[in-house]
């Protein structure tokens, strides 16, 4: 089985994240890049599927050249090879143009199943899985907390407020996963050493069959018009209990229209 | 906290990934519970050993037999991140990899290697290293433990060892004993009749680490139990050089954890209307802690590069062990003072590191012994006896 797992590098959530003042895109140089947390679950699921069904796991990353750190981590966890889509023309792509670029690349490299995290910690749109499936003309099985594959049949379970959904389709398909699905492994030291020798193919937009006018800032359908820092949190109200604390708390809640 | 000297920029991509992996493991699996282990004086070996094995930490710098074969700087960086968790964790790893696996790997027969190394690398078998005795610490050459051949060719081992890390939890002990041919190393399965290893209690340091005595009462070992590759004290001393290299990196991690804790505390704790970090006295402490940390870190990196180049000498390792443990202990004590009353509780990592470092100062050659090594290196005059 040809398993492709999409992995994104995002700014470390532990550091302050910034937008650039010039083109209002994310400032990727201002913070250390780390693997998007949900992508680790996607890699783990891809490796589990490979361990159960055989085949090969390919990492697909679209991102600047420093995203190689993230690719290396996925390879060290056990993926077999990687494709890095990197091109200055991609800078500023929105969700729609990203899905176009990724879909074109997936068509170029081929796949039986595409696995990705259900959202990234930087943009948090959660749109990519659905957009990819649509562009590729294959079924989408989103927000999976369990994946089963039997021959060409694929089924996932999705937790909901009322229980769980069971979604079935046939391969090829796109699957997005949530963190309940598994416990990602640490890259082992042997895996880290082995990753050095694994093939990483670098593709520019031309090689991936991507039309430059449909990607990047110019090709984006959405635009960041303006942004401002969130206002600092105002000081809270402290109700000191001098026998009338309950009344004080109730008055406060009423003033905020909570009760 | 920023690394002022950006020393990690010198690391390769793989070394950085090793750092991040161990750091993540320590954050997930060690830091949440280590204060409890310290308080209860336990090391949860059953859970941790297989996990460390899976990661590839055990015997990480050895080649073959399921080991990762890392370069020296990677080994050092891994020790640094382990000891940023707790010196007991790093001690477990040092003893397993450098003191128990290393002599088998370097001096053992193929059968000994096949029997023990893969299981030890996986964390399925635990090793310990018995050199120190109740009456012979800094001067191991005077050891009384001895092995005699009986007519059948078997070895009969008698004597005792003390302060043996992992002793009571070990499946195999590498024991150094006097023989008619001088000091020899023996691979002793701990279930051999006559072998006992009671735990040493009431320690106030390295509490999240098992320390034991070993007793050998007519322990009968086959001829194949001896390590054929080495005779004399250079056998155990070569193992100590490996482990000391891990220590001189490890303590950089403990010191960093203390400085981080102190910086954090000094910017959030307010007295006399300002954060205590705004007082010049506190800043002077923090500045010197950062200087000590940076210098010991540079020493570690330099020695790592020498080890990778294959030119490192025992004297250079003594330099690093002496300088870096001393620096770490000073940093821990300063951090403790900055945390005030909170500095004495296990709610913060500082006193745990500080107490641990007292053991690290003593084991693997006391600071006095390493001072004498440097004194001899400078003057050509040995002052040990
Ligand atoms: C927690 C812990 C774990 C340990 N784990 C192990 C282990 O796994 N395996 C193992 O074999 N050993 C282990 N040790 C033992 C350790 O290596 C010894 O404690 C150390 O070598 C010192 O020996 P000693 O305690 O007998 O002190 P001593 O040698 O009696 O020294 C006492 C003091 O005298 C000083 N001194 C001694 N000789 C001189 C001299 N010539 N000049 C000046 N000063 C001198 C010392 O520096 C020290 O300050 C461990 C110790 C501890 C505390």
Properties at a glance:
heterodimer, A: 259 residues, Rossmann fold, 3-stranded antiparallel beta sheet, 7 helices, globular, B: 385 residues, alpha+beta, Butyryl-Coa Dehydrogenase, subunit A, domain 1, Butyryl-CoA Dehydrogenase, subunit A, domain 2, 3 domains, 4-stranded antiparallel beta sheet
Summary, kept brief:
Helices cover 28% and strands 24% of the residues of chain A.
Folded structure, characterized:
- The complex is a heterodimer of chains A (259) and B (385).
- Chain A is α/β, with parallel strands linked by helices.
- Chain A is 28% helix and 24% strand.
- Chain A has a single domain (2-219), classed as 3-Layer(aba) Sandwich (Rossmann fold), CATH 3.40.50.
- Chain A has helices at 37-53, 68-77, 95-109, 128-136, 189-195, 216-219, 245-255; strands at residues 2-6, 9-11, 33-35, 56-62, 81-85, 113-117, 140-144, 146-150, 153-160, 163-170, 173-177, 200-203.
- In chain A, helix 2 (68-77) links the parallel strand 4 and strand 5.
- The radius of gyration of chain A is 22 Å and the shape is globular.
- In chain B, helix 5 (87-107) runs antiparallel to helix 6 (110-122) and helix 9 packs antiparallel against helix 10 (350-362).
- Chain B folds into 3 domains: 7-122, Butyryl-Coa Dehydrogenase, subunit A, domain 1 (Orthogonal Bundle), CATH 1.10.540; 127-225, Beta Barrel (Butyryl-CoA Dehydrogenase, subunit A, domain 2), CATH 2.40.110; 234-379, Butyryl-CoA Dehydrogenase, subunit A, domain 3.
- The radius of gyration of chain B is 21 Å and the shape is globular.
- Chain B is α+β, with helices and mostly antiparallel strands and 385 residues long.
- The N and C termini of chain B lie far apart (45 Å).
- Chain A binds chain B through residues 68-69, 72-73, 76, 185-193, 195-196, and chain B through 13-14, 16-18, 20-21, 24-25, 54-57, 60, 68-70, 74, 78.
- The complex binds flavin-adenine dinucleotide.
């Amino acid at each position: 089985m040809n398993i492709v797992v999409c992995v994104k590098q995002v700014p470390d959530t532990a550091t302050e994240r910034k937008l650039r003042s010039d083109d209002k895109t994310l400032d990727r140089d201002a913070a250390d890049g780390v693997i998007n947390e949900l992508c680790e679950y996607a890699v783990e699921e891809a490796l589990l599927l490979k361990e159960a069904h055989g085949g090969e796991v390919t990492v697909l990353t679209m991102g600047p050249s420093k995203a190689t750190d993230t690719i290396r981590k996925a390879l060290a966890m056990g993926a077999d090879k990687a494709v890095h889509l990197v091109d200055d023309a991609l800078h500023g792509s929105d969700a729609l143009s990203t899905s176009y670029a990724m879909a074109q690349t997936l068509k170029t490299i081929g796949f039986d199943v595409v696995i990705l995290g259900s959202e990234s910690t930087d943009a948090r749109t959660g749109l990519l899985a659905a957009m990819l499936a649509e562009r590729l003309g294959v079924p989408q099985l989103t927000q999976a907390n369990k994946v089963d594959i039997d021959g060409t049949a694929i089924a996932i379970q999705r937790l909901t407020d009322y229980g769980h959904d069971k979604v079935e389709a046939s391969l090829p398909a796109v699957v997005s996963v949530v963190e309940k699905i598994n416990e990602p492994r640490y890259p082992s030291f042997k895996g880290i050493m082995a990753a050095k020798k694994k093939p990483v193919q670098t593709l520019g937009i031309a090689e991936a069959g991507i039309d430059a006018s449909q990607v990047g800032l110019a090709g984006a359908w959405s635009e960041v018009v303006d942004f401002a820092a969130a206002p600092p949190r105002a000081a809270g109200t402290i109700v000191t209990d001098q026998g009338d604390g309950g009344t004080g708390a109730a008055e406060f809640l009423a003033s905020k229209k909570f009760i | 906290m920023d690394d002022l000297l950006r020393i990690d920029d010198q690391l390769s991509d793989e070394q950085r990934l090793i750092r991040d992996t161990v750091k993540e493991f320590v954050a997930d699996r060690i830091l949440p519970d280590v204060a409890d282990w310290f308080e209860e004086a336990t090391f949860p070996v059953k859970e941790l050993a297989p996990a460390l094995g899976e990661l590839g930490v055990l015997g990480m710098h050895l080649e073959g037999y399921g080991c990762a074969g890392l370069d020296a700087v990677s080994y050092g960086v891994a020790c640094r991140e382990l000891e940023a968790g707790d010196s007991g964790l790093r001690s477990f790893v040092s003893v397993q990899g450098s003191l128990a696996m290393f002599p088998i790997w370097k001096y053992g027969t193929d059968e000994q290697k096949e029997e023990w190394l893969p299981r030890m690398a996986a964390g399925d078998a635990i090793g310990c290293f018995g050199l120190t005795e109740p009456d012979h610490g800094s001067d191991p050459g005077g050891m009384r433990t001895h092995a005699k051949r009986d007519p059948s060719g078997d070895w009969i081992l008698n004597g005792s060892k003390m302060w043996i890390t992992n002793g009571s939890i070990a499946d195999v002990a590498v024991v150094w004993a006097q023989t008619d041919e001088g000091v020899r190393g023996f691979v002793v399965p701990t279930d051999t009749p006559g072998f006992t290893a009671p735990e040493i209690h009431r320690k106030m340091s390295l509490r999240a680490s098992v320390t034991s005595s070993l007793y050998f009462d007519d322990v009968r070992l086959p001829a194949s139990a001896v390590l054929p590759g080495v005779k004399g004290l250079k056998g155990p001393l070569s193992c100590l050089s490996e482990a000391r290299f891990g220590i001189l990196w490890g303590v950089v991690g403990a010191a960093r954890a203390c400085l981080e804790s102190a910086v954090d505390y000094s910017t959030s704790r307010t007295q006399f209307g300002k954060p205590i970090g705004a007082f010049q006295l506190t800043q002077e402490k923090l500045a010197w802690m950062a200087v000590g940390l940076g210098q010991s870190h540079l020493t570690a990196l330099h020695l790592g590069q020498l080890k990778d180049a294959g030119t490192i000498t025992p004297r250079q390792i003594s330099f690093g062990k002496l300088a870096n443990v001393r620096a770490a202990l000073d940093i821990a004590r300063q951090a403790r003072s900055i945390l005030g009353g909170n500095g004495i509780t296990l709610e913060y990592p500082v006193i745990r590191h500080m107490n641990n470092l007292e053991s690290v100062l003593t084991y693997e050659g006391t600071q006095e012994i390493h001072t004498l090594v440097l004194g001899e290196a400078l003057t050509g005059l040995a002052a040990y006896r």
